[in-house]
């Protein structure tokens, strides 16, 4: 009897898993036949998010040279490295290009086809363009994967969930806003993937409140402007007349920081230094560690080390100590206050100092006397951010970016650390391309994009939605439309995916933040007593092993690649052992 592996989800994570199965098979696969079943209503490789059928106006938010689906020697894994082209090498585009998403989808489909072709001849891949509804079966026996519109299940020796980003049921607040909108004939668009949202109810010339200032907002901005026929002439936006008027705010009240627009040169900071495997081991050995008390101080020191290593070694004229002296004193400074005093004495210009609290909340305590003054102030803020992120004299910012990647790679082992870190990381390290912020500036000058401020509140009363912020005391914006410009939260209990909800009902464990608990070593799904399921695995953002992304920047260790490799190796070892027992 041939062995069977079912992979639910055929996007980048499913593709990455197949690539690692092909890479590890020569060492670990001992079977005479294996059927790999890919279950996904969308075409394998691109999946839903990167599918071909979306607007080419939507870009990747990384340079084409910074996107790869292939491992290199920096990935800490047991399996072999199988190099391959980055997006820019494959597409033959300038490495500094921000490719459109259909191009990324074509790259992912090519990677999928290449990975399938690299599998042993005895391995056959089958694609089932359906949704998986549930998984059943005993812990020690074959699993049944039930599909939509199919009366009989797929039989599987192992099941891997690579579901990617998921839709979610509305939380209590969103459900209340949606109900109010229905009762008063308003428009309420809840958290969603912007490319999937029906934006047609947002009428030309009408005010629209937007809550969220990250990448989902950027997509919304593009689709409601260029997507409706507007165009840019240099730094000026020429409207089509079909655009609504956007009023946007968020917790921070500012857009995500621009992608850095220069290349790295010279020596990289030697990371990790203060937050590496030994520190993670110590945290895991300690019962009940707390992120703010136990983890964040290590991260803060690590990011400071990356920043000041670059400043002192490349821009020594802006410091008062040698790097060797500063490094020794920095290592000895155990508390933030001591490090701050050291930095103040050794780095004269405050612009050269790393202030993570100020970066996180730039509008904290800032007040403007009028709505118009705030618009001008925000345009100045965005302009300064653009200038700095494209000026290599501030290259310590890029060192901090590398530090953030290093930190994320370590945090994966700690499981669910709460939502704050992931938002902070995205805000600093995963912001929009610089040209998108230039477009934001042009739309602001054209009066089609207005900034509301930090800690934006939204109320539903008197038949309208109202937005306000303490950044501009007394200013209130009214609108008949509200868009929640952010992704749905990947909680197990509220996921619309029926398979995930059924797993949870059947005893799969979730974290306090609602993520599916998995074994950090190989991705096996844990039950509520902490036991790993021998035949069920899960990878992706809905698990407590979530990573910055399924594809990553070359030569940065790629934690998703490490996870894919570990899961692939565990699956091959398990299936090979079954085959040996069957042959005995």
From TrEMBL:
Annotated region described as Disordered, given as residue ranges: 511-561
Q: Where is the composition biased (Basic and acidic residues)?
A: 516-530
- Taxonomically, the superkingdom here is Bacteria
Q: Which SUPFAM superfamilies match?
A: FAD/NAD(P)-binding domain (SSF51905)
| Protein name stated in the entry | Uncharacterized protein
Its organism's taxonomic lineage begins at: Bacteria, Bacillati, Actinomycetota, Actinomycetes, Kitasatosporales
């Amino acid at each position: 009897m041939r062995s069977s592996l079912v992979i639910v989800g055929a996007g980048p994570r499913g593709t990455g898993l197949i690539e690692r199965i092909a890479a590890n098979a020569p060492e670990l696969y001992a079977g005479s036949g294996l059927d790999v079943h890919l279950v996904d209503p969308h075409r394998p490789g691109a999946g839903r998010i990167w599918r071909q059928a979306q607007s080419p106006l939507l870009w990747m938010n990384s340079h084409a040279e910074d996107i790869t689906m292939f491992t290199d020697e920096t990935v800490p894994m047991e399996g072999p490295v199988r190099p391959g082209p980055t997006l820019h090498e494959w597409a033959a585009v300038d490495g500094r290009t921000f490719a459109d998403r259909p191009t990324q989808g074509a790259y992912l489909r090519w990677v999928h086809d290449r990975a399938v072709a690299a599998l042993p001849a005895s391995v056959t891949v089958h694609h089932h363009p359906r949704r998986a509804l549930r998984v059943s079966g005993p812990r020690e026996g074959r699993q049944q994967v039930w599909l939509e519109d199919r009366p009989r299940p797929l039989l599987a020796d192992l099941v891997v969930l690579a579901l990617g980003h998921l839709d979610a049921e509305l939380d209590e607040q969103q459900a209340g806003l949606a109900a109010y909108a229905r009762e008063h004939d308003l428009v309420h668009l809840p958290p969603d993937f912007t490319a999937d949202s029906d934006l047609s109810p947002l009428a030309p010339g009408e005010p629209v409140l937007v809550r969220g200032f990250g990448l989902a907002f950027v997509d919304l901005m593009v689709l409601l402007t260029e997507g409706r026929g507007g165009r840019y002439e240099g730094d000026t936006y020429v409207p089509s007349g079909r655009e609504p008027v956007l009023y946007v705010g968020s917790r921070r009240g500012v857009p995500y920081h621009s992608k850095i627009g220069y290349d790295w040169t010279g020596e990289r900071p030697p990371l990790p230094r203060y937050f590496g495997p030994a520190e993670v081991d110590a945290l895991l050995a300690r019962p009940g560690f707390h992120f703010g008390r136990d983890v964040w101080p290590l991260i803060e020191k690590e990011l400071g080390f990356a920043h000041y290593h670059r400043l002192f070694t490349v821009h020594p004229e802006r410091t008062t100590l040698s790097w060797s002296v500063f490094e020794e004193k920095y290592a000895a400074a155990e508390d933030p206050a001591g490090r701050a005093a050291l930095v103040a004495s050794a780095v004269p210009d405050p612009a050269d100092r790393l202030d993570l609290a100020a970066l996180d909340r730039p509008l904290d305590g800032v007040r403007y006397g009028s709505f118009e003054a705030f618009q001008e102030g925000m345009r100045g803020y965005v302009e300064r951010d653009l200038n700095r992120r494209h000026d290599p004299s501030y290259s310590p910012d890029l060192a901090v970016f590398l530090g953030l990647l290093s930190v994320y790679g370590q945090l994966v082992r700690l499981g669910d650390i709460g939502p704050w870190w992931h938002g902070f990381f995205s805000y600093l390290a995963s912001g929009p391309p610089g040209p998108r912020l230039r477009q934001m500036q042009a739309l602001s000058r054209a009066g089609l994009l207005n900034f509301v401020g930090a800690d934006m509140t939204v109320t539903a009363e008197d038949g309208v939605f109202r937005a306000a912020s303490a950044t501009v005391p007394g200013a209130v914006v009214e609108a008949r439309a509200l868009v929640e410009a952010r992704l749905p939260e990947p909680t197990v209990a509220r996921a619309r995916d029926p398979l995930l909800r059924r797993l949870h009902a059947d005893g799969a464990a979730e974290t306090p933040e609602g993520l599916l608990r998995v074994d950090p070593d190989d991705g096996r799904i844990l039950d509520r007593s902490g036991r790993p399921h021998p035949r069920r695995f899960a990878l992706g953002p809905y698990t407590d092993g979530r990573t910055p992304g399924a594809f990553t920047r070359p030569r940065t260790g790629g934690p998703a690649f490490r996870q894919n490799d570990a899961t692939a190796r565990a699956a091959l070892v398990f299936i090979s052992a079954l085959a040996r027992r069957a042959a005995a």
